[in-house]
Amino acid sequence: MHKTQVFLAPEGDHYRTRLTHTLEVCQVARTISRGLRLNEDLTEAIALGHDLGHTPFGHTGEDVLIEVCPHSFRHSLQSVRVVEVLENSGRGLNLTEEVRNGILCHSNGTPAFTLEGQVARFADKIAYMNHDIDDALRAGILSERDIPFNVQVGLGRTKSERISAFVASLIENSGETIRMSGSHQKLFDELRSFMFESVYQNPGAKKEESKAKEVVRRLYDHYVRNPAGMPMEYLAIMENSDIHRAVCDYVSGMSDRFCIAMYEELFVPRSFSI
């Protein structure tokens, strides 16, 4: 619940977090799967697990772990590691290959080998592009008139209209693969490019990014030097792998709030009291 979607540690209750994003992905994914008569439970399992490996502060924290962890880092790989290794006291969740593949392939690169996994991949992007518009409007980073004219005409002016247009196009055009019509794919690509340029790379949305990176980096360095400060389950990971694998698992699993609290406890001096 307290992991960043786009805006770091937002104070307003209406900004999306990783939890609310995941719930919206599930809604979109199940609707598409129902329309295509696919396995809704498989689709939902993939959608629920797709972002479990995200770091505190979202992609900002991920960028730091990519830089400092010698094992490298990708949140999709970490999501699979969570369900295969970290959950259930190190025994994993015994999920099917179809679920794990869908989680692994939800972002970019090779598509999932199941239609349900391909649905979840589209649903992720449809959900985040549209709910992030809501958050950007609320934050004053965008105004309604900034949204590309082609998108407003071709898809609609509201979040519900845009999502419905994408969902309907996927249901009408999918077959052996999950796809939308050429015209809707063009609008999808235009909206995604607009969001990266206007929101995800906007200085207003990224103004706290350097501070967040410093928090994650210093915590990572601290636990590499002081592994005894981690919970016992991560010390067991260190014994079976190495210190960097254990620290990466520990830090990536933190929420924004817990990450900040640990940083304050370790690096911010407290007032003297008698």
Task: Give a concise summary.
With 274 residues, this protein is mostly helical.
- Note the total helix count: 13
Find the structural class using helix and strand composition: mainly alpha
Tally of strands: 0
Shape verdict: globular
Q: What composes the largest sheet?
A: none
The proportion of strand residues reads: under 5%
Query: Any idea what the radius of gyration is?
Result: 20 Å
Helix content bin: 55-70%
Distance between the termini: 38 Å
Mean pLDDT: 90
- Secondary-structure element order, N to C: HHHHHHHHHHHHH
- Uncertain spans, ≥5 residues at pLDDT below 50? none
3D architecture notes:
The protein is mostly helical and 274 residues long. It has a domain at 209-265. It contains 13 helices and no strands. The protein has helices spanning 18-36, 40-49, 59-68, 75-90, 97-104, 115-139, 149-154, 159-173, 182-200, 209-225, 232-240, 243-252, 256-267. Helix 2 (40-49) crosses helix 5. The radius of gyration is 20 Å and the shape is globular. The chain starts with 17 loop residues before the first helix and ends in a 7-residue tail after the last helix. The model has no long low-confidence stretch (mean pLDDT 90).
